Amino acid sequence: MKKQSNASLLLGAAFLMATSAIGPGFLTQTTVFTETLLASFGFVILISIIIDIGAQMNIWRIIAVSEKRAQDIANDVLPGLGYFLAALIVMGGLAFNIGNIAGAGLGTNVIFGISPELGALLSGILAIGIFLVKEAGRLMDRFTQILGFVMIGLTLYVMFTAQPPVGEAVVKTFVPDKIDILAIITLVGGTVGGYITFAGGHRLIDAGVKGKEALPEVTKSSVSAIGIASIMRIFLFLAALGVVSQGLALDPSNPPASVFQLAAGNIGYKMFGVVMWAAAITSVVGAAYTSVSFIRTLSPAVEKYHKWVIVGFIAISTFVFVLVGKPVKILVLVGSLNGLILPIALGVMLIAAYKTKIVGDYKHPLWMTIFGVIIVIAMSYMGVYSLINGIPELFK
Q1: Residue whose C-alpha is closest to residue 46's, from 152, 175, 159
Q2: Cα–Cα distance for residue pair 383/106, rounded to 1 Å
Q3: Which top-level group of life is the source organism from (predicted)?
Q4: Residue 390: pLDDT over 60
Q5: pTM > 0.85
Q6: What is the mean pLDDT of residues 49-66?
Q7: What percent of the chain has pLDDT over 70?
Q8: Any residues with CB less than 8 A from the CB of 43 and at least 6 apart, and which?
Q9: How many CB atoms lie within 10 A of CB 396?
Q10: CA distance 131 to 139
Q11: To the nearest 10°, the Cα dihedral for 366, 370, 376, 379?
Q12: Structural domain boundaries of the chain?
């Protein structure tokens, strides 16, 4: 019975992370890059998957073996560092949650024709409802799994109707016409950047799946999470490639919606509404849960009332969107900061992996450390580049 329960928790953690990654930005980025890079975008997806797996395996393993959340590990590495990391995560999570709520409003607008603001409000209430039930963790796992399957299933249907040149996509995945470094970094940031990579790791700690004996399961779950997000990315890429290869132009104001509409007509457009809403609402749940998990252990009051803090987090995101609209300038700045979170967090984890007071007698695989260090260097460079370009944009 315990094994079955563990399998369910591991799948839940994988889907929480994957659906946190698959948000409105994920849908738009995938479509836009497919339009510009065509079949060669397959290479970008392949490289980003390899980097994502390297980052995620390192972080989840060290969280599991230390039996602590990331902010507590960071404080053990350097006192105060956990507070800094928590501040970055919460700022990023709140700003992006406003974007996620906006996406949920857009999805309901497409499905039901109601205003995005009303749709966002209703979606926010639904997300809050998940955390008010007694078995919130289990309901969250089930909710993200069901909507994850819905998103993948609908996108698969649209992919088949778009009739993409699969052979060409396979060839260009390994022999691209051009390589776009910025696209790789954008995809990595969108899949394991900010709070996203910690969503599943912290979920497993909360559920009691931790310690050296749990490492094989944790590693499998971490790779499964990237696999789920990548399957969605590949299906959407092929759907968009099918549409673009037919010489059809995508609507620049909403590229992913036009992929669904051009491939499958009005039914496709309604399907896009469902996919957009599912992507957005699961990201709302994941961002709220993970952001608050970063401040739970830093304050006894937050630990005691963490469910209500999550509720407040979603409520604030919802009301900011409904009352103010999408705060583009805040998103620009926090998007730049988000680029720095992964290298900082992964760097801290790699240092922690070699501190016996944190991991005991655990020996971290050398190949994972080397893989992690390469990712830290590459993402640091791009994170700084993005921050330097983001701040002037803020004050324009």
Answers
A1: 175
A2: 29
A3: Bacteria
A4: no
A5: yes
A6: 92
A7: 92
A8: 172, 173, 174, 176, 179
A9: 6
A10: 8
A11: -140
A12: 2-394
